[in-house]
Design a protein that fits this description.
141 residues; alpha+beta; six-stranded antiparallel β-sheet; two-stranded antiparallel ribbon; 38% strand
């Protein structure tokens, strides 16, 4: 039987950064809150299954409709595995609504933090975490 290959481009309405750090997720959220004036707080845990390994990843989030901000800090690396296989060396993923990256000069401001060893722009499609990023758009009850 012939297979049908759909070639469609996925539109992401967010930018994705990867960060390396030696601190825990609550300390990283505190640092980003201090730098940007955000109010990142625990939102949920998301599940991931890569091969046969299931992992749970903490999500800290800040949404402000008036300012058009939707920011999520996701713990990428846990002892059992990673959320984004294409970014396995990075501890955190930072999902930013479009426009925040440029307007807030995010990368340069994060690089000035002593708690961050690396920050880089990621392609959401190649990171391997695209499904999890879209899952964040589903509001929890």
């Amino acid at each position: 039987m012939a297979k049908l290959h759909l070639d469609m481009e996925i539109e992401c309405d967010f930018d994705l950064l990867g960060m390396g750090s030696h601190v825990g997720s609550h300390r990283m959220a505190w640092e980003l809150n201090r730098i940007f004036g955000w109010k990142l707080a625990f939102d949920r845990e998301i599940d991931s299954k890569i091969k046969s390994v299931e992992t749970r990843h903490i999500v800290l989030r800040y949404c402000n409709e008036e300012e058009g901000l939707d920011i999520a800090l996701i713990l990428n690396r846990v002892p059992e595995g990673v959320l984004a296989p294409g970014a396995s060396s990075l501890d955190y993923l930072l999902r930013l609504g479009h426009g925040v990256l440029a307007s807030e000069n995010v990368i340069n401001r994060i690089r000035n933090s002593n708690l961050v060893t690396l920050v880089t722009f990621l392609n959401p499609e190649k990171s391997g975490a695209l499904e999890a990023m879209f899952e964040l758009d589903i509001y929890k009850e």
